[in-house]
Amino acid sequence: MEKRRLGKSDLEITPILMGTWQAGKRMWVGIEDSETVKAIRSAFDAGITTIDTAEVYGEGHSEQIVAEALSDVRDRAIYATKVFANHLKYDQVIEACDRSLQNLKTDYIDLYQIHWPSGTWNSEIVSIEETMRAMNQLKADGKIRAIGVSNFSRVQLEEVAQLGQIDSVQPPYSLFWRQVEKEIVPYCIEQNISIIAYSSLAQGLLTGKFQRGHQFAEGDHRAKNKLFLGENYERAQQALDQLRPIAEHHQTSLGNLALAWLIAQPQANAIVGARNAEQAIQNAEAEAVKLTVDELKQIDLIGRSVTDYLDDNPLLWNF
């Protein structure tokens, strides 16, 4: 798989990243550790060498599963993890990084990200200057190689970029969720900051596997995803019907068509999760789908039939 430079750093990432929120198991149902390990390893073997995780995914469990899957090939993998909003004081950032290093069984983290801005999820307000002082110290100490942020607005991104080199931003971004294009994308193009999109398949909606009337199992957080609710869900189903002929033309899946569109956008790379090895291998195949300019425009218009009806709230869920 081709690789792309991460922002202004010397790191190279794959345009498709393996997402491991589900590996933490909390807020997901039907996840088995053994299957997740196989999925992560299969993704790596298929060319997806960049793995995204976070300390909050199962309180370190996801990071431990990543280590179980990839410790023997650590030198060929890129690890991206995150410090949560409740650990943004100087000492807390340092301690959180050390825990992640231990969980990941490594002595360096390639990309360390601030998961949510201070104050979100009822967290204590901490100045971004204090948090970035810790992040810059970790980088100077060689514990991390690059700094990123996640779920930051353009104003917050501009502020943090004055305090250190920011090489990536991680927002929700997919064909069906595109608020990031209004302000974040232009700034990232201007400043050469990589976009690492999460929920790049709209939490599975873009795969076409969820039919009208689908009911999620109790405990599955996707039941509160705005795209799965009411008229948004019906508009999404209609859009998927229009996308199917394009996917069939390329002899690919709906999901891989959506991923191919996404990684063709400026600065954009896509995190994709997988429950098993088969899904992981299929995700890797999206990089080989090459869309024409006309097809990209056509897919763009179909996507807007969903996104034009959404409000400007950047949060994907009604939590």
Topology diagram in text:
Blueprint: E1 4-5, E2 12-13, E3 16-19, H1 33-45, E4 50-52, H2 61-70, E5 78-83, H3 90-104, E6 109-114, H4 128-140, E7 144-150, H5 154-161, E8 166-170, H6 180-191, E9 194-197, H7 230-249, H8 254-263, E10 268-273, H9 277-284, H10 293-307
Parallel strand pairs: 3-4, 3-10, 4-5, 5-6, 6-7, 7-8, 8-9, 9-10
Antiparallel strand pairs: 1-2
Helix pairs in contact: 1-2, 1-9, 3-4, 7-10
Tell me about this structure.
This protein has one domain: Alpha-Beta Barrel (TIM Barrel), CATH 3.20.20. The chain has helices at 33-45, 61-70, 90-104, 128-140, 154-161, 180-191, 230-249, 254-263, 277-284, 293-307, and strands spanning 4-5, 12-13, 16-19, 50-52, 78-83, 109-114, 144-150, 166-170, 194-197, 268-273. Strands 3-4-5-6-7-8-9-10 form an eight-stranded parallel beta barrel, surrounded by seven helices. It is α/β, with parallel strands linked by helices and 319 residues long. It is built from ten helices and ten strands. Helix content is 39%, strand content 14%. Helix 2 (61-70) links the parallel strand 4 (50-52) and strand 5 (78-83). Helix 1 crosses helix 2 (61-70). The mean pLDDT is 95.
